[in-house]
Amino acid sequence: MPESVKLLSLGTAVPPHIIDQREAALASHGAFSSRFGDFDRLAKVFESSGIRRRYGVRPIDWYLETSGWTDRNQAHIEGACALFVAAATKALQSAGLSAADVDTIVTVSSTGIATPSLEARVASQMGFRSDVERVPVFGLGCAGGVSGLSIASRLAASRPGSLVLVVAVETCTLAFRMDKLTKANIVATALFGDGAAACVLRATNAGIAEVEMSGQHTWPDTLDIMGWSVDPEGLGVIFDRAIPPFAEANVRSAVASILGRSNLSIDNVDRFACHPGGAKVVDALETALGLGQGSLNHERDVLGDYGNMSSPTALFVLERLIKAGLPRRTLLTAMGPGFTLSCVSLKAAA
User: Fold this and answer.
1) pLDDT score for 26
2) Could you tell me where the DSSP H helices lie in 159-296?
3) Taking each helix axis from N to C terminus, what angle separates 279-288 and 243-260, rounded to the nearest 10 degrees?
4) For the chain, N or C: smaller number of CB within 10 Å?
5) What is the pLDDT of residue 2?
6) 142 is catalytic
7) Rounded CA gap, 107 and 134, in Å?
8) How far apart are CA 60 and CA 115, in angstroms?
9) pTM, rounded to two decimals
10) What DSSP designation does 337 have?
11) Which of 142, 172, 199, 343 is catalytic?
């Protein structure tokens, strides 16, 4: 029997600038309240979000003063490269490996443009081989970390023994826009943080967990639920529909369909590890999946400590579950632009 793909290690990283939620609320009040008559009502999201602090690639005052693609995208490249190196180095060291051992790199990012892509920019600093294969993935948003893990596992399975590194890195705070007087922008200012997570995978006989299966479900006619708008100032967030009610009404059937392709059911899952897009989203997921209130405790803790970092956030949740002790079967889930649900099932090592 061929060896199954194993998750060997996981590493996470955040940038140096702490964004305290109270400071963010005060800064947003100063930037928006005099220009947006409905700001005080919308600003309640800073308190109801469940977020205590976040981290940014730039200090909070920078976001109030900076505009335009050039400065924002340069901050993305600088910040994302540093985060890539920090998370990837942690993951490789945890596995007792070096960058020179990596055969394939899957880089997931949707919060800026980098061509050459991030893994090429840090190749010399990391010590990647000249023959390493690069697989940059863009546009999956919050689902990117889970989808990237799925892609990396299939690449590892296709070449048994090869080492695959997947890095999800996002600089969501660069979407803070002082020029956009919209509900979606204020919500983003209350939710978004920056961070990175890296996983090392290989088809081998030992590891933290086996990547058992993966799958996606894309709902038709849902392109306007989530994404980016693009204009001269930078990226602008799109939250055009109420995501929590959509999740509550639709996630369970999609998860059941994905699991059914591998002859599994929701009852076979011991722990759901979900991307915590926001406090209301976590509540909706507990309801949709038939979980007891408060079951997604690690999700709420990650949200409180880091905010919504988009693609790496679900992997931050997985990191906490690993430290606590993985149950027999964990289903990692995240929703992102498309509108798409991505799932990966992990079976804990015996």
Assistant:
1) 83
2) 183-191, 243-260, 279-288
3) 40
4) N
5) 67
6) yes
7) 8
8) 27
9) 0.94
10) T
11) 142
What tokens appear for 289 in the block?
């999946």
Do the beta carbons of residue 225 and residue 23 sit within 8 Å?
no
Which residues, in sequence order, are CB contacts of 171 under 8 Å at separation 6+? 57, 75, 76, 79, 80, 83, 111, 112, 194
Question: Which pLDDT score, from 0 to 100, does residue 204 have?
Answer: 93
Q: Return the DSSP state at 49.
A: T
Side-chain half-sphere CA neighbours of 119 within 13 A: 26
CA nearest 11: which of 86, 80, 77? 86
Q: Residue 129 is which amino acid?
A: R
Terminal CA-CA length for the chain: 17
Q: Are 266 and 252 in contact (CB under 8 A)?
A: yes
Geometric angle at alpha carbon 40, from 39 and 42, rounded to 5°: 65
State the virtual CA torsion across 197, 9, 154, 277 in degrees, nearest 10.
-30
Q: What is the DSSP letter of 301?
A: H
Predicted local distance difference test score (pLDDT) of residue 174? 92
Q: Which residues of the chain are modeled with pLDDT < 70?
A: 1-2, 34, 36-37, 180-181, 240-241, 350
pLDDT computed for residue 65 by the predictor? 81
The tokens for 247 are 């999740």
Sign of the alpha-carbon dihedral angle for 24, 29, 30, 32: positive
- The DSSP bridge partners found for residue 335 are 341
Give the Cα separation of 321 and 231 in Å (integer).
Answer: 39
pLDDT of amino acid 171:
97
- pLDDT of 240: 66
Cα 165 to Cα 206: distance, rounded to the nearest angstrom: 17
Do 231 and 346 contact (CB within 8 A), yes or no? no
Would you state the structure tokens that stand for residue 29, as one six-digit string?
């009040």
- Cβ atoms of 273 and 317 within 8 Å: the answer is yes
Residue bearing tokens 């058992």:
212
Q: What is the pLDDT of residues 207-251, one digit of tens each?
A: 999 999 999 999 999 988 888 888 777 777 877 668 889 999 999
CA distance linking residue 335 with residue 115, whole number of Å: 26
